[in-house]
Design goal:
Length: 310
């Protein structure tokens, strides 16, 4: 019998208890899932950063921490964490992100706002949106989410560039990497999507210099993390027209403070960190499969590299 501790905010327990138990049975695991296991009796922790466990040092027999979240920036530097940490890669989380990114890309690509907000009785039939093939899109972050969004945008006809830390070879995506590749990835991009993790290296990756590399009047879409953007530089670029519109789902402070200039800026769209989320049915299967692998000595999937921070 494996003792699995569920450590997340209380409402999550009621969403996850049944799907997790069903997934453990389906994976052939004999599990006691609880919110109350003693630390020295806990084999695995299903974990969200805002749950009760903050100090991992008493969890002496715990074999791994299974994060419910894809982003691990709030736990990766926890000095008490010596156990392996697995982040969430979940088909439903990915689908949600693909739909959100494609939707907001299409909004800007087609110039939908002009017609949704501009019905003044004047028939302006001279301006057509370009086709996708004429609209280069760059995704900073070519991982589980970035690459999936890239494939979906490619299927719609957009020329897609993906930028990562390490070299990659992904069909349908022009892959660039490292500091040297960043300039080429941003040069002339008309839509830039941020799907990087929050680390020391990625903070302020969009700043005055990098925003200036994009095509004049480009669009920024950020479902990654707030600190990826130098907010002052983005506001300057919006005011100068270098950036035509920014659609932002994530912020340095969440909820975004009521007096933040993003709320009232006419060319900023704020969404409240809803681009995607982990879904209990599919995420439970991912966790059960990972624990099954751990028990069989097959190695955990989606292991976080603690030195890289993601
Ligand atoms: P992955 O770890 O799969 O991908 C991260 C990508 O970023 C990789 O391609 C990685 O490169 C690249 N990267 C990391 N650091 C650097 C760097 N210094 N320079 C260049 N590239 C870098 O993560 P996911 O795709 O699963 O998730 C991405 C982020 O999306 C999460 O960290 C989270 O912050 C955010 N997110 C937001 C949600 C929302 O609702 N708004 C929901 C879920 C996630 P390499 O491949 O070479 O390692």
């Amino acid at each position: 019998m494996l003792n699995i501790l569920f450590s997340a905010q209380p409402p999550r327990w009621f969403e996850y208890e049944a799907p997790l138990n069903a997934a453990f049975v389906a994976a052939g695991l004999d599990v006691d899932l609880s919110r109350d296991h003693a630390p020295d009796q806990t084999d695995y922790i299903v974990f969200a950063p805002n749950g009760p466990v903050r100090d991992f040092s008493p969890y002496t027999r715990t074999k791994a921490i299974m994060s419910l979240w894809a982003g691990v920036e709030t736990v990766v530097d926890n000095r008490t964490l010596t156990q392996p940490l697995c982040r969430m890669v979940d088909d439903s989380l990915t689908s949600g992100m693909v739909e959100w990114v494609v939707g907001h890309t299409m909004r800007h690509h087609l110039g939908m706002d002009a017609h949704i907000h501009g019905q003044d009785g004047v028939w302006r039939d001279g301006v057509f949106p370009p086709v996708a093939a004429q609209r280069p899109v760059t995704i900073l972050g070519n991982g589980a989410l970035g690459a999936a969004c890239g494939q979906a945008l490619h299927r719609l006809g957009f020329p897609v560039t993906g930028w990562s830390r390490n070299p990659k070879d992904i069909p349908n995506i022009r892959c660039l990497h490292g500091d040297d590749g960043l300039k080429g990835a941003l040069a002339g991009a008309e839509i830039v999507v941020l799907l990087l993790p929050q680390t020391q290296e990625t903070e302020d990756i969009l700043n005055g210099d990098t925003l200036a590399l994009m095509a004049k009047g480009a669009f920024v879409i950020n479902p990654g993390r707030g600190p990826l953007i130098d907010d002052g530089a983005l506001l300057d670029a919006l005011d100068s027209g270098q950036i035509a519109h920014a659609t932002l789902d994530v912020f340095r402070v969440e909820p975004l403070p009521k007096d933040h200039p993003y709320w009232s800026h006419p060319r900023v769209t704020v969404t409240p960190h809803i681009a995607s989320t982990t879904r209990p049915e599919t995420a439970s299967q991912v966790i059960a499969e990972n624990i099954r692998r751990g028990e069989r000595g097959e190695g955990f999937l989606h292991l976080v590299n603690r030195s890289k921070g993601y």
